[in-house]
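Q: What structure does this chain adopt?
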Amino acid sequence: MSAPALGTPARGEGSAPWRLARFLRSTLGKLFVRVYRTRFFGEENLPSEGGYIIAGNHLSYLDPMLLWCGAPRPTHFLARAELFSAPFLRWLLPRVWCLPISRASADREGIQRATTLLKRGECVGIFPEGTRQVVGESGEATLGEAHAGVAFIAMRAGVPVVPVGLWGTQYALPRGAKIPRFPRVTIRYGEPVQPEAFAEYDRQERMQAMTAEIMRRVARARDQAEKE
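A:
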């Protein structure tokens, strides 16, 4: 079974069957969400039509998996390009709507793929910090410095960014643990950030201001998720 070309949409004209992705979402994906007793809040903040970006805090390898399995619409996650060098992941990732993105430099090709999908009305998932947060022994984690790529892509595509707060995934495999645990996970979608709200700034200031607002809302959504 060959993989659809990178950047192929999941819906509408020109989309591919994506048989493996749809099979996994409808079977193992639902089981995976239940195993971690995942609760989703704020789904009314997700646009019902049109493209949008979901941007969340990153506590664990579980984060993209649970979001991918539980999101109402198919989501193309940006994954660091190095993951595509491992034989199994190189086979799997293109078949489950993932797109490679290089963090070493401005990846014009990766940015263009994401922009094109968003303009077609697709959903793209990005972790603005680019890597997992450092989690303390008691489970606390502080948001790291965010890259401006999320704001840049949102402005290019003219789509909103929906902040996502995750809590609980950091307890699944804490430092020193040899056996995975199955904590309750909470995922909270926050109020979208609209690119046009920053039109008064020049380009660089616009990206900085929008990035700061995205991360402020991500932090707020994460704090709400912790309490729910």
